[in-house]
């Protein structure tokens, strides 16, 4: 499970990240609205934990819901009045937690929210991609595709209406993208085509010259 923390109070941000990592969550952190919006655009998150005090909290919620409708949103706020809580929930937040945080309660609320979250399964006609199980089936046939190639395919499928550059794929999938070369994307794409597209006689990924890649299943006539 991957969680994005958007909190401008640096010490609190670090404390939340440390606690989430301790419990096995994958995390990214942002200390401002702009960086948070950037992360939401390049990665899939199961949950976003965000401070209401950053810019207009309702604007941030709207951006998250537009770019990733299935992502759960938990708002943290130092404003403890009823009106702020109602505004956040009406804007689309799934939960509202008041500061100062009780970390035990925070973790319990996150776990509860994730249990209620929508499915991450991607289904396009006869093709089913299950990110949680790292499993692909096509016409009820299991496909052996694991690791980074699976993650590349999943990311492109989630952004099927977009051309995704090599740099965006590196940022979205590799923990330290600066330490790898862009040719690892070509290797992953080649494995997808060799292990999946050719045996099944389908096409899932289109190369867009000088721009990147686009998920193209099913091919439009």
What is the topology?
Layout: E1 2-6, H1 10-22, E2 26-30, H2 33-42, E3 47-51, H3 57-67, E4 72-77, H4 82-91, E5 95-98, H5 103-116, E6 122-124, E7 127-130, E8 135-138, E9 141-143, H6 147-158, H7 166-173, H8 183-200, E10 205-208, E11 212-215
Parallel strand pairs: 1-2, 1-3, 3-4, 4-5
Antiparallel strand pairs: 6-7, 7-8, 8-9, 10-11
Reported for the largest beta sheet, the result is:
5 strands, parallel
Q: What overall form do the CA principal axes indicate? A: elongated
Radius of gyration: 19 Å
Give me the strand/helix succession.
EHEHEHEHEHEEEEHHHEE
Uncertain ranges: none
**Helical segment count:** 8
Helix content: 40-55%
Going by helix content, strand content and strand pairing, the class is: alpha/beta
Mean pLDDT score: 89
What percentage of amino acids are in beta strands?
15-25%
Distance between the termini: 37 Å
| Sheet with most strands: strand arrangement | 2-1-3-4-5
Count every beta strand, where a strand is a DSSP E run of 2 or more residues: 11
